[in-house]
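Quick one, T. Sequence first:
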Amino acid sequence: MAAQSSPSRRRFLLGGLGLGVAGVGALVLGWGVLPPRQRLHGSAPLPLHDGAVALNGWLAIQSDGTVLLAMPRSEMGQGVHTALPMLVAEELDVPLNSVKLIQAPMDKIFGNVAMLKDSLPFHPDDQGRLKALAQWTVAKAARELGVIVTGGSSSVKDGWGPMREAGASARAMLLQAAAALWQVPAAQCRTENGDVLHPDGRRASYASLAQRAAAIDPGTPVLKLPKDFKLIGQPAPRRDTPSKVNGSARFGIDARPPGMLYAALHLPPRLGDTLSAFDAAPILAMPGVKKVVDLTPQLAQRSVSCAAVVADTWWRARQAAAALPTQWKAGPQANLSSAGVYAEFARLLDSEAGYAYHASGEVESKAVQGLRSVKAEYRAPFLAHAAMEPVNCTAQVKNGKVMLWVSTQAPGIAVDVAAKVAGVDAKDVAIEVLLLGGGFGRRLEVDMVAQAVAIALQCDGAPVQLVWTREQDTRHDMYRPAALARFAARLDEHGRIASWDNKSVSGSITHQYLQRNFGLPGAGPDKTTAEGEFDMPYEIANQRIAHVIADSAVPVGYWRSVGHSHNAFFKESFIDELAHAAGQDGIAFRRAMLTQHPRHLAVLDAAVARAGSAPPGHAHGVALHQSFGSIVAQVAQVSVENGEIRVQRVVCAIDCGIAVNPNIIAQQMESAVLFGLSAALGGEITFQEGKVEQGNFHDYPVLRMGQTPEVETIIIASAEHPEGVGEPGTPPIAPAVANAVFSLTGKRLRSLPLRLA
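Structure tokens:
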């Protein structure tokens, strides 16, 4: 496979991006005058066989007419292996079932531009020149980086341009090939279901034209207008469903290369502990055990300090790893506790002004002095990802080459880290990206790849499959950050918000992620910490939203909907507090602050209208939130039974721009609601003496079937560019439930998870 951009070049560019908006000018000076890198043709031909003919860097035509599409995004249940082929099939004029996926090579044209572009900390309402320049510059830099990654609800948003262009370009080439063959003007020909047709009845299949078409320059691709879509906008069934039902689907944990051995880890008992000694002798005497490996010297910051046991079955490896006699040197987190984390958060909020992500008017102006003041403090805990498929990776190091079989969201980063650990060039690392049994951000990390490669280096060329236990996955995650937020608002004599002051504190995911995976120091503001707070749509004249970054002793990582996951709870709960303080209905209170935001208003109204009135003994709670470009409103129907919060029904309205596949959007809203509800009602990772106190689903619960509410999804018709879908349904559910609980009980729950006791 072709190598990605060199690590040194990538570090330079990422360092430039890390400067934020202030560094935009420096980036522009160097290469801003050059046109952005194209995304249609790769640096090397697609890896094809059996006579398939490539028409550009994304697709090829086989002799039987099958379209091969290079797929750079990972399928983790979000439906991209259906939605993205729809974009190509639409423009190419072929049936969706004729598109077959092949794994995209490590080429820059497949890099995720939209995800990096969306990382800039601009307010959605900002239409200024600085924002436009920064977005253009970061998008251009992202094309140079070419990082192949799936996350940030960006797959369809990113693929909307290049994948449609790939289909339209190939269609134009095939149409011109037929016109040349028939010696007629191309304008007389049309395409349909994988054929080129002429009014006189002549017809040629794409397969018969592919070789001739490959030599044609199609010019600038002309994309279809939305009015001409035949496939986009239709509820096509998921392509991955049959294999998941019949058991033929292959996830990372299903990799079975010949001669494979199995590995299990012995991980530290506390955060930050370092392995100082172990006794391998009794373990090597156990049945099936092949090796005991100390991984600490090889992995540095790429993994926690640990040892691994290799055996002929995973169960034997696991049993032996658990029995390994070890000695540990205590790290700086030995006394870490959840209480201590929140105490430090409070100290920082008391002493630090924080970085102001958004400010307008003056929150302490004379005009608001003396008005009624409302204050509140909210908090959210650390959260684990708890994906159903345990963390795993299979690796082989042989003859200077590395082969990976892994369910990952970041194949480009996985290739780079495998190369570093094995001491080879990135071009000598091959990867097979298998289906992900849940990602949620955990598989943006590549610690399991580094560990598997380090183990494989000791196994004489045999492939080795590393699998973590559920307890290890829970106790050694990169957690959703804990956070503490304070709000102070003033209400005028009409019950309107005259000023809004919000300051929060948490660890920085981006700082840690750059250090772990790219060796870059974390510096400057991090949008993920304050997203969902600073970018709210409510029209409040005087507001200041700031955040304080706390140096986190706890490893933190991207978790489904990232900062929005808790900041939406803070913001939408406090909005309801203010509505109550003003003696107003929460819905009317929100509507009055959305006069210049018709899309938000339409989403809110649609959800409320569908929800109707709550039955006796139940209450409705409402939340409205924008994230990843999409606007979502949710109405949760809640009851309290024997002191327990029960959610019976959730109405979810979303405006995500053009709905590529309404079926998948509805599925993702259901998934996001249940994921967020699991966290809202039971998700909490706590620390005591440096140890995580939870281990498995008995003490880190997810919703059971009997607890899941009915979820109804309303998709607002739109002609706007497609936006994110995988994550935006998660943030509103916690505040919607909390607001319903207040309506029922009069008790304001300001801490997650939501508990009445």
